[in-house]
Design a protein that fits this description.
The structure holds two protein chains of two kinds. By secondary structure, chain A is of the alpha+beta class. Chain A has seven helices and twelve strands. In chain B, the strands form two sheets. Chain B has a two-stranded antiparallel ribbon with strand order 1-4. In chain B, strands 2-3 form a two-stranded antiparallel sheet. The longest helix of chain B has 29 residues, at 68-96. The radius of gyration of chain B is 20 Å and the shape is globular. The chains are: A alpha+beta, B mainly alpha.
Chain lengths: 278, 223
């Protein structure tokens, strides 16, 4: 090959062309007349263009012909398929990188006011928890009940489904500590497979799978970037986790329900991936 | 006068090439639907913005705005087909031996300059042309690598926690998104150059990607 490259001007251009010098595979038919060759070519072109044309038209018009519900349903099933693949391959307890406090993005970015538009009376706020094993009524907690649990800090990259990200210092309690303290469940496998969270007015609601919400970096947060959580960021208590996009990290939590049914999710109803796992 | 029919592109290569066209188109289109939600990149030269991706007119002309959810639905469906087709293509190249006509060889870089000079009509000296010339060998190989790069940077953005070591190796989440975006721009640039070159090369060359064959002169002995 090296030898050949030095004599490239001598490489022939005809039948014994450079392809031979380069040891490329060439397959040549027996000699035929020009007319015969043209015929071979014409029939092969016809077949090729016909096939390509039909395939392209079938693709375009077939997709247009399909009813909108069929298409949306199909693509939602793809989301479910991707969820089953990724949750099977990946380890739900893998940790997200932690950042030093200097890396925290300042000022913090505020995005979305769903469910937190009204004024909130922080003293009147209560956290209502349903679906706890062995209880027929909601468990009702105050902020003091939350603050009693081990204070945990986590500086992680917050990722918005829109494609931007910021680094945030979250302080609160581990969701898993909250489960250990206030429910009889000892480990995630005993729990119902889903958790539903909603704002007090019910305007914004999200669904979580239990492995992701029990992830050690999923926190119920009451301080952000070293200060009390502001109303815009979801005071008095919000969810924060590097396991999902921001659309899942509900601000101003009013209700938590443990459930066996896959919960409704505000953005999944708008066509986004219910799982939205990172 | 006599002729021979030369089989130039084998059927699997042609199929996978043409299947890749709508798949890549759908990946780029759905990618733009997603990118619109956080359009932060621009081409800069010495700190000056040369071109912002993308101007408002581009979005409104194509009807891009507020289709993030749809973009993600399409992107995370076609990613499978794009990846499978790409892996099948590379596997076929190596199993069939077709890679010999495609990968650069010793001296390809040097000879590719001659291709460029010839095609710009600066030099009249015709560069050696096998199935592909040396510039084609380099570019087509790079395009395969770009495809692999797109899949890998895509994984880094898609699952930045589960693939956190890999995402960090690419410089972190935001860098991975930047890399993924620029690979898309490179694909778009390749597409434009490719179509222009195919148009210049002419019908005989173009039809060979569809029929698989070219007619060559029949005189003389062959191997």
């Amino acid at each position: 090959m090296k030898e050949a490259s030095e004599n490239i001007d001598k490489w022939p251009d005809g039948l014994e062309n450079s392809a031979n010098a380069l040891k490329e595979r060439r397959s040549l038919s027996a000699e035929m007349s020009d007319a015969e060759a043209r015929k071979v070519l014409a029939s092969r072109s016809r077949r090729g263009f016909l096939l390509g044309g039909v395939a392209a038209l079938a693709g375009i018009f077939g997709w247009r012909w399909l009813p909108e519900e069929t298409k949306v349903g199909f693509l939602q099933n793809v989301f479910r398929f991707n969820e089953s693949v990724t949750s099977a391959i990946f380890d739900p307890t893998r940790l997200s990188p932690q950042f030093p406090v200097e890396k925290v993005t300042r000022p913090s970015r505020v995005n979305g006011f769903l469910g937190i538009e009204s004024e909130i009376d922080l003293d009147a706020w209560r956290l209502n928890i349903g679906g706890i094993q062995g209880r027929s009524s909601d468990l009702v907690l105050t902020m003091d009940d939350i603050r009693k649990l081990p204070k945990t800090e986590s500086i992680t990259e917050f990722k918005c489904i829109e494609g931007w990200s910021t680094i945030v210092q979250w302080t609160g309690i581990r969701f898993s500590d909250f489960v250990t303290a206030y429910t009889p469940w000892k480990n995630p496998e005993d729990m119902p497979p889903y958790v539903s969270l909603a704002t007090p007015d019910g305007a914004y609601f999200v669904g979580w799978d239990t492995p992701s919400i029990m992830h050690p970096q999923t926190l119920l947060v009451y301080e952000m970037n070293g200060e009390m959580l502001t109303s815009n960021h979801g005071a008095p208590l919000r969810l924060a986790s590097p396991t999902k996009y921001g659309i899942k990290q509900l601000k101003r939590i009013g209700r938590i329900d443990f459930t066996h049914e896959r919960p409704q999710d505000y953005w999944a109803n708008e066509g986004y991936d219910w799982y939205s796992g990172l | 006068m006599s002729a021979r029919v030369e089989e130039k592109h084998r059927a699997p290569i042609r199929w996978m090439h043409w299947i890749n066209f709508p798949l890549l188109a759908m990946m780029m289109w759905s990618g733009v639907l997603i990118y619109w939600a956080n359009p932060i990149y621009s081409l800069r030269l010495a700190g000056r913005e040369i071109f912002y991706f993308f101007p408002q007119g581009f979005y409104s002309f194509l009807g891009v705005p507020y289709r993030l959810a749809e973009g993600m639905q399409l992107h995370f469906f076609f990613m499978w087909l794009f990846t499978i087709n790409g892996i099948a293509y590379v596997a076929y190249l190596f199993l069939s031996g077709e890679f010999r006509g495609l990968l650069p060889t010793f001296g390809s870089l040097k000879r590719s300059f001659r291709v460029v000079l010839y095609e710009l009509h600066i030099s009249k000296q015709k560069p050696p042309q096998g199935k592909y010339n040396d510039a084609q060998r380099i570019v087509y190989t790079l395009v395969i690598l770009m495809g692999a790069g797109s899949v890998l940077t895509g994984i880094a953005i898609y699952k930045p926690l589960q693939a956190s070591l890999f995402t960090s190796a690419l410089g972190g989440y935001e860098w991975a998104r930047w890399e993924h975006f620029w690979l898309m721009i490179l694909f778009a640039a390749f597409f434009v150059v490719h179509v222009v070159q195919v148009a210049i090369a002419g019908w005989r060359n173009f039809q060979s990607m569809i029929t698989g064959v070219e007619v060559v002169k029949g005189e003389g002995e062959t191997e």
